[in-house]
Amino acid sequence: MSDKTYTMENIGKIPVHVSIIMDGNGRWAGERGLDRSAGHAEGVESVRACTEAAVEYGVKYLSLYAFSEENWGRPQAEVDALMLLMFKSMVEELSNFMENGIRFVVLGHREKLSDELNAVIDDCMRKTSGNDRLTLIVFLSYSGKWDILQAAKRYARDLIEHPDEAESMLGMGIDGFDRYLVTAGIPDPDIIIRTSGEMRLSNYLLWQGAYSELLFTDVLWPDFRKDEFLSALRTYSKRDRRYGKVK
């Protein structure tokens, strides 16, 4: 279907936050007899296409699951290639972020990243911090279980360090605990998309995705471009979100 078929009118309600589990780079490369790194490189083009579509159609938050904590167990050569690709992508895309009003954020267990990568991340986040057209979030060295665990530790530390506030802190609700997660201040995803035909969350946004709509597609990530992104938005607009209630 041509992307000209999609208009603001026929897509319907636009989600505030779209999140994508980018999967299938290795299979895409393998089907073409290429090294896995070629699939990761081609996947960057899909990131660019989806980011441009998100800006164009008014999505306010686009988050991407780029590298899980479990991914550190991959062959070292592949991990090194991925980290280099992320480094280069941030450097090369900075001018595009500034031109299009994109705020760039990286969330995850960043202590595991190299000093060089963390430095370019910090620079990109600082320079784009004032942009407000789209927030592009990259989850790097992230897992949902780690996120909940680190939040619980921070909560426990606050209880110890502020005993005079313990009673009110112990009585806080779900919204109060949200502020301990790495996504504090970011709305939960309205829809989580996973490419490549796999039908699982793979330890991603386990707390934040509790009521997200889920969409699984057989399209491999390097082939997931503007048409596929807009089709996902249209699918979302047809969903009836009840949050456990009756309408």
List the helices and strands and how they pair.
Blueprint: H1 8-11, E1 17-21, H2 25-31, H3 36-57, E2 61-68, H4 76-99, E3 102-107, H5 115-128, E4 134-142, H6 144-161, H7 166-170, H8 174-178, E5 191-194, E6 213-216, H9 226-237
Parallel strand pairs: 1-2, 1-5, 2-4, 3-4, 5-6
Protein model, in words:
The protein is an alpha/beta fold and 247 residues long. It has a single domain (11-143, 188-237), classed as Undecaprenyl pyrophosphate synthetase. It has helices at 8-11, 25-31, 36-57, 76-99, 115-128, 144-161, 166-170, 174-178, 226-237, and strands at 17-21, 61-68, 102-107, 134-142, 191-194, 213-216. Strands 3-4-2-1-5-6 form a six-stranded parallel beta sheet, with helices on both faces. Helix 5 links the parallel strand 3 (102-107) and strand 4 (134-142). Helix 3 (36-57) packs parallel to helix 4 (76-99).
Key phrases:
alpha/beta; Undecaprenyl pyrophosphate synthetase; six-stranded parallel beta sheet; 9 helices; 6 strands
Helicity, as a percent range: 40-55%
Overall structural class, as computed from helix and strand content, comes to: alpha/beta
How many structural domains does the protein architecture include?
1
**Outline, from the CA principal axes?**
globular
Return residue spans where pLDDT drops below 50 for at least 5 consecutive residues.
none
Separation of termini?
33 Å
The main pleated sheet reads as: 6 strands, parallel
What is the helix tally?
A: 9
Number of strands: 6
Strand content: 5-15%
